[in-house]
Amino acid sequence: MKFYMAPMEGMTGYVFRNAYQKYYHDVDRYFTPFLCSVGLSHRELQDVLPEHNRDMDVVPQILTNRAEDFLKIARRMEQFGYERVNLNLGCPSGTVVSKGRGAGFLGMLPELENFLEKIFDQCPLRISIKTRIGVQDPGEWLRLQELYNRFPLDELIVHPRLQKDFYQKPVHLEVFAAVAEQSTAGVCYNGEIHSLHDFERFHAQFPQVDTVMLGRGIFKRPGLAGACSMFLQDEAAAENEQSREAFEILQDFLAELLCGYRREMGNEKHTLYKMKEVWTYLGQSIPDGARQVRQITKAKTIAEYKIAAREALRSWEEKCCLYN
Ligand SMILES: Cc1cc2nc3c(=O)[nH]c(=O)nc-3n(C[C@H](O)[C@H](O)[C@H](O)COP(=O)(O)O)c2cc1C
Q1: 234 and 145 within one domain
Q2: How far is the CA of 265 from the centre of ligand 1 (A)?
Q3: Atom of ligand 1 nearest to the CA of 33
Q4: For 176-204, how does the pLDDT look when each residue is reduced to its tens digit (9 = 90+)?
Q5: Is 96 within a domain?
Q6: CB of 9 sitting under 6 A from ligand 1
Q7: Does the C-beta of 190 come closer than 6 Å to ligand 1?
Q8: Residue closest to 4 by CA, chosen among 84, 94, 71, 72
Q9: Which of 51, 144, 202, 324 has the fewest CB within 10 Å, making it most exposed?
């Protein structure tokens, strides 16, 4: 089984990836948040520079509906030494969709077909696709699947929601069952695996799917990929995993993240913003953790943040298992 880290704009940039790779070694492949400027913005460039991505398998993700732009960015990635790129056909946000990009491109089949023909013909790198299953109706998937099957995809990563579902509506597992059966490319599943129980349920239903991409689940429980791998080897050990060591690793990981963001941002306010964002997800795993997270979000300085974070971790360690 392989585990991928999902691209999450503003969250899974190189600082997060490096801290994660240092303390958790269970993600096989990372995807950058989407790149959309042909010239690469400062943030995009920093995110893909080879020196910021050593000893990790990283795939740059591209968001565009213009084949020339996709190819220009891909060639730049080739110069940096990347072997593959990923096409974003999933972003549901209104501003992206209204320009016919991301999940919005799924509603423009002739244009999408034309685009895929050009990029698969001319791109020097392998191309994977991360896609939703349609815009408005699950019935749209059939034609999308037929289209994808015509191209030599590196892999097909499917988040089985429609564009209109955004991030909260239930995933369409009945459509994913069809994907798993009909895709001619290797399939990776993504969506709502936020705990070990979620993974157990998914694996029981789709034992043949050997690649899973984790997004918010990694923010709620950073050791989730490792717990899932352990579950596949020894179910009981994974269920009981709540060792002191696991909390120490989490503490060290958070300290590394703080250092990394401080270096990247060079500014206390922005660093705090980043750490608070991480804790809004982490805090969801602490039973009755709202008070602790409130304390963290109230912190005005890094010193205050550190005290509140230490208290939250201590309370978490007392109360619960890390992964379920
Ligand atoms: C804040 C945020 C930013 C995201 N940014 C991206 C992105 O840049 N590219 C992308 O393909 N998906 C993006 N996604 C979608 C995730 O990659 C993933 O598909 C989604 O969160 C569902 O998986 P999960 O339930 O494991 O989180 C984003 C999601 C969130 C919540």
Answers
A1: yes
A2: 23
A3: 8
A4: 999 999 999 999 999 999 999 999 999 99
A5: yes
A6: yes
A7: yes
A8: 84
A9: 51
CATH number at residue 14: 3.20.20.70
* Residue 166 lies in domain: 2-239
CA of 307 to the centre of ligand 1 (A): 30
Domain end: 239, 274, 293, which one? 239
- Tokens 């978490």 -> residue: 316
Are 84 and 183 found together in one domain?
Answer: yes
Task: Establish whether residue 203 lines the binding site of ligand 1, counting it when its CB lies within 6 angstroms of any ligand atom.
Answer: no
Q: Structure tokens of 86?
A: 């990923």
Q: Give, for ligand 1, the residue of 4, 5, 8 to mutate: max count of ligand atoms closer than 8 Å to Cβ.
A: 8
For residue range 208-238, list pLDDT tens digits in order: 999 999 999 999 999 999 999 999 998 777 7
90 ligand 1 Cβ < 6 A:
yes
Q: Please tell me the distance from the alpha carbon of residue 96 to that of residue 91, in angstroms, as a whole number.
A: 7
pTM above 0.90, yes or no: yes
**How many CB atoms within 10 Å of residue 192?**
20
**Amino acid of residue 179:** V
